[in-house]
Every structure is written in C-alpha cells, then in structure tokens.
Specification:
The chain has helices at about 10-20, 25-35, 45-60, 80-100, and strands spanning about 25, 60-70, 70-75. It has about 110 residues and is of the alpha+beta class.
Length: about 110
C-alpha cells in the first residue's frame, strides 16, 4: 500500500522543517541553517530547497509571513509542527529498535 507523500519525511524535509522551529526564515537562511546544523555534512541545493518550500506551503506546513520582491519569508504552521514532531518520534523509535538489537553504543 503506498504511503502518503509526506507521511515519512526525507532528511532534507526534516531539516527544512527544523530550520523553522524557532523562527521565521527565508530560503537562503534555511540553507545556511541546514549546513551549519549538520556541520557541512548535508547541503541543500536551490532546486531541492525551493521545491520543498513550495510543497510545504501547498500542504499547509509553512505559510509566507513576508514577501519583499522575490524574497519570501516563511513560518511553520501547527500542521508543520505536528509533522516535524511526528518524524522526531518515528526516528526515536528507530533508534530504540537499533539499541535493543545492540546496533549502536549507548
């Protein structure tokens, strides 16, 4: 049975939503946040980033808070917060499963 498109977030989706957790941001600020948060391990290209921002806006996870020319600033919505927290919980369960199998050191 196919999953809903946003039922499980990809790594890029997860970090984009994380970027909005504390404050509103524009796309460039999101990209900088993700690169800094991951120590450069993960970088979002412009095509991926702006595709995700548009998708999240369409799905109601983000809403624009300010538009200045081509620059758009977004805020996370309650639906976006719920999706982010749901993914955090899913990842916690995955780690707990791995730990119960000795899959990593505590």
């Amino acid at each position: 049975m196919p999953k809903k498109s946003l039922e499980v977030l990809t790594e890029s989706m997860f970090y984009v939503l994380m970027a909005f957790w504390r404050e509103e941001k524009c796309g460039a600020e999101v990209a900088a946040f993700v690169e800094e948060k991951t120590g450069g391990r993960f970088r979002l290209g412009p095509a991926t980033l702006y595709t995700l921002l548009a998708k999240f806006e369409k799905e109601g996870y983000l809403s624009p808070s300010q538009v200045e020319g081509r620059k758009r600033t977004y805020r996370i919505t309650p639906k976006g917060r719920a999706a982010y927290l749901g993914e955090v919980e899913r990842l916690r369960r995955c780690l707990a499963d791995a730990q119960s199998e000795g899959g990593f050191l505590p």
